[in-house]
Amino acid sequence: MAVFTPLSDAQVAEFLKRFDVGNLVSLEGVAGGTENTTFFVTTDRRELVLTLFEQGEHEELPFFVDLLDYLDEHRLPVPGPVHDREGIALHSLAGKPSLLFPRLPGRHPMTPNLAQCRALGEALGRMHVVSQHFPGHRPNPRDLSWLVAMHHRVLGYLSPDDQALMKDEVEIYQGVFGAAPALPHGALHGDLFRDNTLFEGDRLGGIIDFYNGCTGDLLFDLAVVINDWASGPDGRLDRERHDAIVQAYQARRPLTSAEREVWPTMLRMTALRYWLSRLLVVYVDPPAHDLTPHDPAQFHTILTARLKHGALPLPEASDT
């Protein structure tokens, strides 16, 4: 169980007194986290999620609070932080920064159907329309400049072929994005995998875990989604899921001609982003806690499939 900081019922009951959320009924540690401590909190009035931040840059937490408040105010399906009676959301509990959230309904869609893909694409498109006006700023911590700086750290652990693959790809990305016009920019989720969504049947109950949230190219977010949601075990894209997501997305935010031009490269770059970050965890910077890292091979497979088979044609916005 990924509860790195244990809490007693008494600690949480006292903590809840700062908020207008009722009295503690039960407290349950949540398994499966990899970075933070999470509890499900039940009061006599509502269901909540309590998160304690174990690592990362704590000075960046106000950005996440502001982003979630902003998206919640614009009626996006996100868990807007619960503010206390003084209007403050970010607190300290057991010596760790902490936030309290409403518990959103649903489960992670491990094998998403087409209706779920459409719901996710539509929500992401709405989010990106709104997020272009978000006033906060946090540079994407896993963008091209990070790839350029960090890929050297794993080369010694790779086969000669994979060393060449990684170096060649990074060089290609520098050429493509260095020459491309500026792409539409705004606030991103930054890590919108299936396990960061909740569904009740075909209805999207919520988009969660914004702790990779940042500002950057909106297309980066869409590429992360497509690589996770629409890839088969062999890395190849499933046309039906791909088109369901992209068509629903474009019904809210049509892609620009510049975005369409660099789309195949963005799919490759975001695949390499996760291949590299997982390699770093395995070989260079293992997690502070006794957890099994994600397998880097998954995104090596996705990257090589993109290279071999290319990107699928993007549906036109008028097709929606």
Automatic annotation (TrEMBL):
Does this UniProt record's set of keywords contain GTP-binding? no
> Do you know which InterPro entries this protein is assigned to?
Aminoglycoside_PTrfase, Homoserine_kinase_II, Kinase-like_dom_sf, Pseudomonas-type_ThrB
Q: Which GO terms describe its molecular function?
A: ATP binding; homoserine kinase activity
The reaction(s) catalysed by this protein are: L-homoserine + ATP = O-phospho-L-homoserine + ADP + H(+)
Q: What is its EC number?
A: 2.7.1.39
Q: Could you tell me the Gene Ontology terms of the biological process aspect for this record?
A: threonine biosynthetic process
**Keywords, ordered alphabetically:** Amino-acid biosynthesis, ATP-binding, Kinase, Nucleotide-binding, Threonine biosynthesis, Transferase
Tell me the ranges covered by the Aminoglycoside phosphotransferase domain, including all copies.
27-255
Pathway given for this chain reads: Amino-acid biosynthesis; L-threonine biosynthesis; L-threonine from L-aspartate: step 4/5
The highest taxon in the source lineage is: Bacteria
The family database entries (CDD domains) matched by this protein are listed as:
HomoserineK_II
Name the family the entry cites: Belongs to the pseudomonas-type ThrB family.
Q: What NCBIfam families has UniProt attached to this entry?
A: PRK05231.1, thrB_alt
Q: Which HAMAP family match?
A: Homoser_kinase_2
Output this protein's name: Homoserine kinase
